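Tutorial, part two.
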Amino acid sequence: MISKKKIIYPVNASLHKYLQQYQREKKLPISYHQLKYFLETIPVIDGRGKDTLWESVIYPHAQIEEIHNSLKQVYAMLKAGGDINVQRHLYIERIDFCTFGNTHPFRIRIVNSYNDVHDYFYIKVPDASRVYGLELEHLLSPNQLNYIVDENTLVEEHIPGIPGDVFLPMYSGRPEFNIKRIGKEFVKFNERCFVRLLGDMRAYNFVFDITPDFDDCQFRIRAIDFDQQFYEGSLKIYLPQYFKENFPYVEMALKNFNKDVIEQYQQEERALIARRIKEQRYRLRDLRDVVVKDEISTPEKVKQLGLELAEHYDDSTFEKCNSMGEIIDRSLKRLLVTTRIKNPLYF
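Running the prediction step on this input gives:
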């Protein structure tokens, strides 16, 4: 079971040092705390007339220009290496505040005045779990991520795609979409989450990135919420297949693939992750040295997850782990020392 209220762990000095070393930490012109001084809010309603749980914020007139200029600088730092020349034709159209979730993020909608193309980025409280999740996503998944940390502020780029809970009813029945490819990607996504211990990947916490190919459409599932990076104690939290919201995707896999095919996809994904571990071994070593000493979960959850993984893998090393950092270190090392896994089939 997922904790009703996740503990927010601060970014400690060692993690700050790591972020500085790899250019993830920079001095920002505006902070999360400064954005909280808005006067009032207006609910943001979607095209179907439903409340989105986001509220558009209104600031004092005298502060708007300063806030907008600072946000454009942040966007330039995130996307253009800090080149302020890209700000000249950009403007901030809207600033939204989310009342749902642990970190209550701000979502910034920024628009190109030449062609009206818009983009988003987010400003949040830097929970250490989320920072570790973002970094592992960047290093171990097929996707690269831009983010910046500055003391008590976290800036993230927008991850484009169709949310999993929206994709299913609106897009999965389209004749040009091969249902087997969707099922295959879910199996691989399920494996990625389990190996790097990213939890709570319910349908609304991931998106579909669709790429038309010369004879078919390719699908990639991308996580968009990293708050549950190696925090919970139950092994099932790290397997998206166990959430009821994802059952339709599980059914796609079970109806179209036998045991051998599912195991093949799982092993393919593990081999890709193992390759990325080797390519990023020095950076991952530095991250490991930080995370193994960091307190990012409760002792009870660490003990529970260690015991369940020890049973699952038939590997007593997990039982001896004293932190979530030691558990993820062991989970990743297994990919380098084993070519096959015991009991690989979860579905």
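Residues 13-126+145-157 form one domain. In part three we will examine how such features are distributed along the chain.
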